[in-house]
Structures are given as structure tokens and as C-alpha cells.
Amino acid sequence: MPDPIKWEDGSLYLLDQRRIPFEVEYLKCTNYQDVAEAIEKMIVRGAPAIGIAAAYGIVLASHGGLPMVKEAVSRLSKTRPTAVNLFWALEKMERAATDFHDATAKDPGLILKDHLLEVAVDIHEEERRIEKLIALHGQSIVPPNCQVLTHCNAGALATGGIGTALGVIRMAQKIGKAIKVYCDETRPLLQGARLSSWELWMDGLDVTVICDDMAAFLMKKGKVDLVIVGADRIASNGDTANKIGTYNLAVLCKYHGIPFYVAAPRSTIDCSIKDGEAVPIEERDPDEVRTVRGVKIFLEDIPAWNPAFDVTPGDLISGIITEAGILKAPYRESIETAMRIDVNFEDAHWADSYLKQGGSEDGGI
Ligand SMILES: CSC[C@H]1O[C@H](OP(=O)(O)O)[C@H](O)[C@@H]1O
């Protein structure tokens, strides 16, 4: 699986996910403006991946010192409003620059860029380790011979690691639970059809793409035992913002008595908001609805509505799988506890032993 985010020789290379699966092309970013545009155009997308890319964007601004770092933070924070990982990463990078700036006042020899690169790489590497823990915890809710439905792409392309929802699926498969996966195509930008099916197919999994409007009938036919999705922002009561169409699945799962799980790192939890009403929902260009891969499907003059996310109430969520374990309702309490847990990353190593089974040295992805 090509890395969606690569830092090489002082530049950031972003896999252009708009072209996947038919072309594998990287965009070279040499300044923070390039990174901001890449996030807005969804060349790089997915909550954790957006945060990681933005962190490297701050590194590209470091030659201008703290003033340019602050300029870059402001610009990057205006790219996409919903995924909280973006703001978490920018805050961490700005704090590192500010703290370091005080230090450089005393010792001008220190190089801000090297320090910020260290912090950005650490954010990236920690995300990879976190996803292995999410996968280890999450596989426990996947029964053998499970038929799993997933929505959008919460895989390696969305996170820079093994993925969150797809990381759970990969781990369950590697541990020996034969999995059949259905991917919702996920209109309008088709992240499920283009990205998730490609990731899973490349890993040799049994994957089938369905149109979003087929999910209910698939459930009625008894072909879905579990739904697992990613997240972009989780409120302190467990209400979860994720790709538009996720809420539909949660309601359908309630009706059909099917478990509905969210998989996400704790950096996706926003404890500053009490419920999902406060999540800023990105509205994108109506032309994304008006076209399919550039081909118009209805008249220009007819308005289109294009919210990129919806919010699933916590009471429709069976569990939230994080690196600190699987959180259950009441989420206000379980989230409060989870945020205080000091996670032992040692376990991530034995995740590798599973992921490497039949896979390459880099943990099977
Ligand atoms: C692992 S988070 C992935 C999350 O992000 C996606 O949104 P987008 O493709 O618009 O960045 C979608 O909500 C996924 O669940």
C-alpha cells in the first residue's frame, strides 16, 4: 500500500487520493500553502492524515520563524472544519514552536525546523502505533466468518498507518477470522468504492462494493453482522461526526439489531463539546454532487446540497474502539476515563507479529 504521506529531502509528498485507484501520483509540497490547498482539494484526506499533513506543513513554514508558523497555523486551520485531528495537530506544532522559540532566544544556534520536524514525525509515528492498538482491541468484537459493512475510507489512506476501521478488519483477518467486507461506495466522492475497496483488495481480503442505497437490503438479507466506521470528531457524550451516510447506517443497524462500532484514536475526541450539535459540519462544492468523476448528472440550474459529514448520536453506537480500549455507553463517563489512561505502546509490537503474517516487513501494509 503506498504511503499517503511521505517526508523526503525537506519536502512533503502527498499521494493524490483523487486519482486512486487508477493512478498512483504524489504531489510535492514545498511550502505550507501547498499543504493547505492539498487538504482543501482532498488530495490528502481522512481525519488523522489531515492532522499529520498539517503538522508537516508547519515544518515547511519554520524557515520564517514563529511569525510564519503562526501564519501557517491560521491558514491550515481554515482548510476543513470537521476533523478535530487537524486542530489537535496544529495546536501541538504551534506550542512546540512557541516553547522552542523561547529556547532559541537563549541559544540562537538551535534550529527550529529540526525541532518541529521531530515533533511532526512523532505525531506521525504515534498515529501508526495507536492504530495497531485500536486494531488489537477492535478485533475482539469481530466474530469468526463475519460479514462486515464499512463506509467511506477509514483505512491506511486516511491515517498514514494501518487504518482505524480497516485496521480492525485487517487485524481480525490476520488473526484468522475469515472476514467478508462490503464497502459502501460513499457518494459523492466515492471514498469507499475507490479507496477502501482498493486497500482491502490489495490485502487479499474478500471485498464487495455496494451503492450506499443497497445497505438496508443487504442487512435485510442477513448479509451484515457488523458495521464499523471511522470518525472525524467525537463529542464528549459519544455523538460522532463521520462521513455523510454514516448516520443512515446507524439507524439501519438499530432497526436490524446489528452492532455499530466506531474506531478512532483519542485525538479524534473533542472533550470541549458536550454533544454532536456543536460539531462544525463542512459543506462542500455542490458540483461534487452534480457530477460523478467530472461527468454532470443533472442540470446546472438545479441546486444541490453537499454536507460532507453527519452526526450519529451516541445512543446508536455499540462501542467506540480506541487505543485505550473499547468504550461503552454512558460515553461521557467512559470517555473521561479513557482520556486519562496512560496507554502502553508495548502491545503494538505483538500487533506487528500478526500483521506481518503473510505480509511485508512493514507490518503487512
Ligand atoms: C480515519 S478517519 C477517516 C474519516 O475521514 C473521512 O472523511 P474525508 O474523506 O472527507 O476526509 C471519513 O469521514 C472517514 O471516516
From TrEMBL:
Top enzyme class, one word, equals isomerase
Site annotation Transition state stabilizer: residues: 152
Q: Name one GO biological process term.
A: L-methionine salvage from methylthioadenosine
Its EC number(s): 5.3.1.23
**Active-site residue list:** 232 (proton donor)
Keyword Amino-acid biosynthesis assigned: yes
Q: In which pathway does it act?
A: Amino-acid biosynthesis; L-methionine biosynthesis via salvage pathway; L-methionine from S-methyl-5-thio-alpha-D-ribose 1-phosphate: step 1/6
Report the catalytic activity.
5-(methylsulfanyl)-alpha-D-ribose 1-phosphate = 5-(methylsulfanyl)-D-ribulose 1-phosphate
GO molecular function (one): S-methyl-5-thioribose-1-phosphate isomerase activity
Q: Name one Pfam family in it.
A: IF-2B
Q: Where does substrate bind?
A: 45-47, 80, 191, 242-243
Domain of life, per UniProt, equals Bacteria
Q: Which keywords accompany this UniProt record? A: Amino-acid biosynthesis, Isomerase, Methionine biosynthesis
As for family, the record states: Belongs to the EIF-2B alpha/beta/delta subunits family. MtnA subfamily.
What NCBIfam families does this protein map onto?
eIF-2B_rel, PRK05720.1, salvage_mtnA
The free-text function statement in the UniProt record for this protein reads:
Catalyzes the interconversion of methylthioribose-1-phosphate (MTR-1-P) into methylthioribulose-1-phosphate (MTRu-1-P).
State what protein this is by name.
Answer: Methylthioribose-1-phosphate isomerase
Question: Source gene?
Answer: mtnA
